[in-house]
Amino acid sequence: MTIPPRLTALSGRSLLVAACALACGTSLAAEPLSGTLEKIRRANLISIGHRETSVPFSYVDASGKVVGFSQDLCDRVIAAVKARTGKPDLQVRFIPVTSQNRTPLVQNGTVDLECGVTTNLAARHAQVAFSSTFFVATTRLLTRTSSGIRDFPDLAGKTVVTNQGTTSERLLRKMNEEKKMNMQIISAKDYGEGRLTLESGRAAAYMMDDVLLAGVRQLAAKPADWTIVGTPQSSEAYGFMLRKDDPQFKALVDGVLVQLMKRGEINALYDKWFMKPVPPKGLAFDFPMSDVIKARYAAPNDAPLE
Length: 306
Prior knowledge:
The protein has ten helices and 17 strands. It has helices at residues 13-30, 35-43, 69-85, 102-107, 167-178, 191-199, 210-219, 247-262, 265-274, 291-298, and strands at residues 3-6, 45-50, 53-54, 58-60, 66-67, 91-96, 113-114, 128-130, 135-144, 159-163, 184-188, 205-209, 226-229, 235-238, 241-243, 277-278, 283-284.
């Protein structure tokens, strides 16, 4: 699905200048533009990578609009970019990405900022950079309540679906090999395909990040028929992905996120997407903020959890 470019609503140039002053800092605002910011200024265009079905972080609603927790944070970054580049009418192009193509699209300049659900891994630092962490998840399993599956050892001899190119896929394949579990592993291209694989009965369980599995469960025909189980296999620090060696753009992105965290504004956005009813079904996730996330918001940083 191709999402047409749209413009982020503004409340006037003064608001943008204030946003940049807060997010960028006086010294950064005085620097000549370089890297991604200069690219954006010259083209009068910022390209945002988004997911299509990653409820409630980044997905496309019934009207074709990109929405979610990640997108709300991204919109704040876009406002700061408009101020920093002096482009109040900056165009915003939304580009759908997958676990397979998100990294090369950032690297080759197609996407300026990937605002989805990408885990900050040390292994990825050779290719891209990450913003400060805005969410921490754990990897678990989604299965039917009647399946009898309660933890990872119960997967022996069963078919399991996960998403291609993710930490979960790497962990699942490693587990299967090292513990000789004889699992059949299906690699889905995205959460929509993973959900269909699970609901159709082609897989007995779906391994991914717990909060994303909660989103998959919400989209099921009968959410009550599904449960999230299993000992967490890893902790996943989500960050926005951007190009390497671009300290000016990273400082702007981090500045926006840190301000939202330090001022407590991110808490209201968290409640909006994780504690209150959200589209498309108007169901609440009831996913309280963990102590790990609270600690990250109190002391923002971009360190991976490995």
